[in-house]
Structure formats: structure tokens, C-alpha cells
Amino acid sequence: MTVLALEIGPTRFAAIEIADDVGPEETRQIPIPERQAWERTRDLVLEVAAGRELTAVGIAAAGPIDMSSGVVAPAHVRDWQAGFPLVESVQKLFPGVAVALALDGVCLALAERHFGGTQEVMDSLSMYISDTIIGGVMVGGFVVVGRTGNAGQVGHVLVPGYDDPCVCGGRGCLEAVAGSGALVRWANEKGWRGASIDALVAAAQSGEPVAVSALERAGTALGRAIASVAALLDIDRVMIGGPMAAKGSALWKPLQNAVAMHARLPSLPGLRALPSELGDLGLLAGAGVLALSTLQQQQS
Question: Is 285 exposed, middle or buried (CB count within 10 Å of its CB: 0-12, 13-18, 19+)?
């Protein structure tokens, strides 16, 4: 039985076989294709499959998606912006194979629930911060999927006190304030000359004032958004991944301060926001859980 996980993520396309003897070093990945996105995806999956007979493929895809039709339309994949039938295309590539699609945030929540920091709690929010901000919600131990499959888009929660324009067309979205691309642009406008979030995080660790201020800005915005989501859903654990959310980052103190300031309901004294330990494997791990769960359902 060969099960594959495919990630159509915010920063890469990646695939891996799901098996006990397969480690992270077996991940195959490519940058987001500028053209021929399906052809590049097909080659990636075929490389991982290596001619073996597959039984299931789980797909974690950046949104928006339509779970009922298996169509994805991520804004950062030029070929697919109008919608691409990803599930149908994978099924044609591997006839008879169970193919399951879920939003990247849904898969992230599944990964944290099975392998990460939310295993012992029933209600949680899982986040990953890159240019986009991925979010997935667990309520009562079950992942929240939503009507079309797009539930958990915490990057588009409005943050009080901010009016930054967002790619979605709105203003003041969390992603427009605390997404890594937005943060680098903000720092550049303040005189910092770096070009990547990794460089910004390193500069903040070295004490460069603009870089520190940038991460403090992101932390404050994240803390306010988390407090709002926690009040709405009565969650008690938030896991945050991504380069700027590593332990010891300048992000964390303002984030925790904002949570303490705004999460004041008597039902929220145990709310904790913590750095994720899943690294870059969260979406693939969650896609693997999705594939195995779908396969079990079909066999039962």
C-alpha cells in the first residue's frame, strides 16, 4: 500500500510517501511554478510514486478551493487562478486511487492534532505564517472544514488599529499586517534594506531596531487576532509555525502581551499560544492523515 501526500503550499509544491520508514529527507519539492503548474505537479508526484501502485493521495492546497468539485484556485499559482480541477487530474494520473483534497489550514490542524502541539486539547487554532497566513480550527476534536472547504482563513480576520490594504481587496486583514511579505515591505519603508523574512528575523535577533519593530508589529496584530478567534470559538491552544515564529523570536513577547490584554473573558484564562514544532512538514503530514482517513472510510 503506497500513500502519497501532496502540498500545494504558499511557498512551494512538495510531495512525500507516507510510510513509517520514510523521513523528512525524502520530501521532494519545487518552487511555485511560474507556468505549466500541472505539468510540474505531475512530474513531482510521479517522481515520488516511482512506478509503484498507489492506493491514496492526500492533497493540502492553498485556497480558495472547492471541495465538492476538487477545484483549486490559489492566487499565487498563475495557471490556476481561474480554477484548476486538481483532484480530477490526479485521478486521471492514477486511475482507481482514492484522492482527497483539503485546504492547507485544515491539513495543518490535522497535523497538529495527530503529531504536534494540540494532541491533548479538543479546541485549537493552528497557524503558519508566510506571505500568506494559514489557519486551521479544531472544535471538539474535529477539524472545521466549512461549507466550501475554506474554513479557517485566519489571515483575513480584521485586526483593530490597522488599515493596511490586503490582496483580497479588504483592509486591515491580519495577513496584510503580519504576513512575511507585508512585514518585509513595512521594514523596507522604514529604512531596512533586507529582502527576505529570514533576513528580517536574523536582523531582529541581532537587535536591529527596525527589524525588532517589524516583528513587534506582527506580534501585536497576531495577538489581537488570536484573542478575537479565541473569544468566538472558545479555544484554549494556538500553535504558530513559520520562520518568524521560532522560539525566542521578537514576535512572541508582544504577541503574548496582546493576548493577555484582549483575551479577558473568564472562559479564557488557559489560552496559550506556542511555537509549532512541525517545521516544514505540517501540510504534508496533514495531507497524509487526510489520505489515510479517506482510505479507511472507503474500506469500511
Answer: buried
Over residues 181-194, the pLDDT tens digits come to 999 999 999 999 99
Q: How far apart are CA 174 and CA 152, in angstroms?
A: 13
Are β-strands 71-72 and 84-85 bridged in parallel, bridged antiparallel, or unpaired? Answer: antiparallel
| Residue 157 contacts residue 229 (beta carbons within 8 Å) | yes
Question: Could you report the per-residue pLDDT of 227-269, keeping only the tens digit for each?
Answer: 999 999 999 999 999 999 988 889 999 999 999 999 999 998 8
Burial class (CB in 10 A: 0-12, 13-18, 19+), 176: buried
In the predicted structure, residue 86 carries a pLDDT above the cut 90: yes
Q: How far is it, in rounded angstroms, from Cα 20 to Cα 56?
A: 16
User: DSSP per residue over 242-298, as a string?
Assistant: SGGGSTT-TTHHHHHHHHHHH--STT-TT-EEEE-S-GGGHHHHHHHHHHHHHHHHH
Give the count of alpha carbons within 13 A of 18, CB side only. Answer: 27
Residues 172, 298: Cα–Cα separation, whole Å: 43
pLDDT score of 295:
78
